[in-house]
Design goal:
homodimer, globular, mainly alpha, three-stranded mixed beta sheet
Chain lengths: 509, 509
């Protein structure tokens, strides 16, 4: 057996354990009876521990040492060289953090999460302050396992968005924020769009069936996946032949389920599109949270909330929901699903304001980690910043600093940037795809998605994790990541919807 | 940490791996998309291999050595002494068979099963002869890992029905067969019962819902389990808090699904009834295949096909299936579900003839293992014995020697006896329960099962695998296993159904 074969066999065993753990979690969220919960938690954690033990075996380090020499002369994009390179990165991530710190973080996260589930409904940030202070301290300790960083946030960001640096993102986000704020102001100065047609009841099964119909048109392969219902929607993968999504359907939130389904389908199209030769290795994954999110947002928003998409699908939707939409025009409907609204909550925010929510959190994370902000001042700072960005007051911490689970069940740092990176890249990929294949918008308006799907698969999905997000975006679009395509997209879409003027645009630039 | 704590921690890890593997198999049978099959097979086998590695660790042997000394003076029924005793038995089973023989058996079984899937439809026993000869040779090698047996079948029987010996069973089965044959002859000399009322179409969802209603009345705890659909029905357990069953529903096989559901529910009531302190250990299991089957058959047949049960449930069944049963009387219906018929196939055979199918296979297994029968003569011998027992000719090997998967995907020896042991014990347990609680039949006729369930839980289920099947039956019924209660049960039930006379009974004795 060659060293490469041995590495692959060991990685496959780790992948089997992790995939089994993923199935245990999927089952817990979908079909598990309540009586199974206690044992299930232990079983999932046993599989995770064994996967970690197997992956951090010193033998893997030795194989990597040897294979790094053997693959040194291979091209950067060779499967084998990429496998060694990416595995080395994961391996260092896994072995450099002492087991004692990992378990301290896990224990603290469980305690903090438990407290948060009570503190949020009680609107009680004060209780969370000492817990968050400990979280911040543990997050810094994690970061310090990877010395040599420019910002202490960099190693934390690396976990989800490998290669992205705090400084580069701060600059990117600052441009985006400066240019988004005026458009938000301009939109909120106009009359709100009427979205009464969405505030109706609709049967659960019909909502679910419509989503299923659309994702199959997108190209989701149901022979290699399935759609189920869960409280929190997600995509999960047990192999490249079994990529499942879940959605949430509410009778009184007509169409929410559809957009959630399209979002998760975007993640699934990515996973289903990875070259099957990479299955069972660390390369059968996405390069980063941001690039993963770019595809969920592309299919949900750039396709699923586009006028062209609904030219084809609105008659079908009317047919399925005659009672709700029989007397609604395409124009009214299209405007309703794209209504912009300054709200308190990030989850479910519209395309324009969503990033303001994310950037607020990202900036506060950096301020906390880099020592410019104390945890005890976090809630107040949140309210000030929110009011500055959104122009509305935050009435309580429940819908302010306590609203997202992220800081309360995991580290501070690295949790949020991916959402906005995803939005930025979604427009950049879509612009590159339509530049290469100008027939894409016309096809979408006919309910055909094959050309778009094919371009994305060829330029993004198939490579899995062989390349970093920066490499993928450069190869696929010919440019580094940039906010321009995204700002152009937002302007071209929302200018006519809200009757924005050239003067609003000038303010943007 | 004490030695006992360490043993328990190691066994819990093994149990976590095995339970995860069980969930992977459940998902494969219920919801997995076809694309997941290849990776799933590998993942399940990785978990099984790791569980085996962890369980056969020399450290477990050392802990057992120490703990056998420590628990020597404890009572036989103490949890700790039982854990050490039962774990020792499993450990010896696992370590005495060389890894090379295990993998030779696994490889051969896969090859043989593959060939059987083609040979059965082609009615081609000749192809299977060399494969079965190899299976027989490997089965003997397995048995010879446990020297000191009286019959070479004993170690193979031990795997599923621990403690049962070929000689004792041969004698038990011989009595049963001698006394069953005349009653079969007598019944088949009478006019067949009309079962037209069962040969109707009925909607799948209604069939499923009716079964769900009955098992909840039996006491199946849906907060600790669920019911799903699969091609082959089964019960599976991921912890004592998550005991699932599956059933098969066919639109044109009205009521098959119900009896399958009741059968699997019997297995599940057993598992759900094990004391929760035993969860995660080898004691959270059934003592043997036979005793497990005794409970599926008890709830399916002694309860579910009884006249009293239908006095309560038939009006409900008529209500749910008005079209099919609106004009059918309870008597006609009761007779139909208890029709006896000499057929070629074991699966789904009636209560009277079922054991003849099993005993034929058991005797042939012994003849093969003990060298009285050559594989090349097996098909012919099968036909001769079948015609002698059932009075009908076997038209082909497809529905003869090739009909069951057992010998073709596993060893020869130990595969069949549990079915008939289960039937025998089901009547013995039921007789003991009604002797102790004479109100049970009246309660069943009111749709109440609490007293029966409580007696079975207290006398059988709660102990899990602490005792052997022989110990359980002796403690619960005050007697060793005996065919008398079963023969009494069959006589009392089928005598009036078929108008059997005292003369038929005399022939029996």
């Amino acid at each position: 057996m060659t060293a490469l074969d041995e590495l692959k066999a060991r990685l496959l065993e780790v992948d089997d354990l992790k995939s089994a753990a993923s199935l245990l979690r999927w089952d817990q969220a979908t079909y598990m009876p309540p009586g199974g919960a206690v044992a299930r938690g232990r079983q999932t954690s046993t599989l995770g521990r064994l996967a970690h033990e197997k992956f951090t075996d010193i033998a893997i380090g030795r194989l990597l040492d040897q294979l790094e020499r053997e693959t040194a002369s291979m091209p950067h994009d060779s499967d084998d060289a990429s496998l060694v390179r990416v595995t080395r990165h994961h391996y260092e991530q896994a072995v450099r953090i002492p087991a004692s710190l990992v378990s301290a973080c896990d224990e603290h996260a469980a305690k903090s999460y438990q407290a948060w589930t009570l503190a949020r409904p009680a609107n009680d940030f004060a209780t969370m302050v000492p817990l968050l202070e400990k979280t911040l301290e543990l997050s810094r300790q994690r970061a310090n396992c990877f010395p040599g960083y420019a910002s202490i946030a960099d190693p934390l960001i690396d976990v989800s968005d490998f290669g992205m640096k705090a400084e580069a993102m701060r600059s990117l986000f600052s441009t985006l924020r400066t240019r988004l704020l005026p458009i938000v102001r301009a939109i909120t100065s106009r009359s709100p769009i009427d979205n009464a047609c969405l505030r109706q009841h609709a049967p659960l099964a019909d909502q679910l069936a419509f989503g299923q119909q659309v994702i199959e048109a997108f190209g989701y392969d149901s022979a290699r996946g399935r759609l189920d219902l869960t409280h929190h929607p997600f995509m999960t993968k047990f192999s490249l032949g079994d990529v499942r999504i879940t959605t949430r359907v509410r009778e009184n939130a007509f169409l929410d389920a559809l957009f959630i389904t399209l979002h998760e389908c975007g993640h699934a199209l990515y996973a289903q599109g990875i070259r099957k030769e990479l299955d069972g290795t660390p390369l059968a994954d996405v390069p980063s949270a941001g690039i993963d999110e770019s595809q969920s947002r592309l299919w949900e928003n750039l396709v699923g909330r586009s006028r062209g998409f609904w030219e084809h699908f609105f008659p079908k939707l009317q047919h399925a929901f005659r009672k709700q939409l029989g007397n609604v025009s395409l124009d009214t409907f299209y405007r309703a699903i794209n209504r912009v609204e300054c709200g308190l909550i990030r989850g479910g925010a519209d395309e324009v304001t969503y990033n303001l929510h994310v950037m607020l959190r990202f900036d506060l994370e950096l301020d906390l980690l880099e020592g410019r902000l104390a945890v005890k001042d976090l809630a107040r700072t949140w309210r000030e910043r929110f009011e500055a960005d959104f122009g509305i007051a935050v009435p309580d911490d429940r819908d302010g600093v306590l609203q997202d689970v992220h800081w309360y069940d995991g580290p501070i740092g690295g949790a949020f940037q991916g959402y906005t990176l995803g939005n930025i890249m979604s427009a950049q990929f879509f612009a590159a795809a339509t530049a290469a294949q100008p027939e894409i918008p016309t096809q979408i308006a006919r309910g055909e998605f094959g050309t778009l799907h094919h371009w994305l698969r060829g330029n993004v999905y198939q490579h899995g994790k062989k390349f970093t997000a920066s490499e993928v975006i450069r190869h696929a679009t010919g440019n580094d990541m940039s906010v321009e395509p995204y700002l152009d997209y937002l302007w071209n879409k929302f200018q006519p919807l809200y009757g924005l003027t050239e003067r609003d645009r000038m303010t943007l630039a």
